[in-house]
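Example record used in the benchmark description.
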Amino acid sequence: MPRRGGGSGGGPGGGSGGGGFQFNVASGAILAGVLVVGIGIGTGISSTTQGDQGNIASSQQLDMAVPDPEFCRQWGASAFVMDIELYTTMNPSTSFVTQPSLKPGCVIRRENWSVLQKEGAVSAEQMRQCKQRMNTFAYIGSVKDKPVVRCVYQTDISENKFLTKGVADDTVGITPEADQF
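Model output (structure tokens):
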């Protein structure tokens, strides 16, 4: 079947056609401007995200996620609290675990326990028992509104796999405060 109209084909001798996109300096400038504006908007949106969408990307965001950020920062350190339960049966011997829930919490330094007692969060007897076991206190919720307070153990700092190792495999960068919170 012969062609009619002699349109421009894509093959040899078909002509250049006038409907194609021609790249010139103006087109390049517009594309570059769109790219810069897009990057600017994306950066602005991501830098103003406060972590209220389930993402905590820095210790500052974690500090602000606890109910009493100033109190926690002054007397201890903010923390992730993972609430999880483990069930183990004997016959058959198997284990079950609940879905963990993640909450913001605060760990109080040992020398600052008295502030928890002043707030009415712990009693003298709780302080005595926790001190006997050489532990410290941590809590979930607001210290001013009946927080859930627990006597917690600190893990062995040498088992922390996030620490930088030295040349002779010595652990470097551990402060006495980190070793004995």
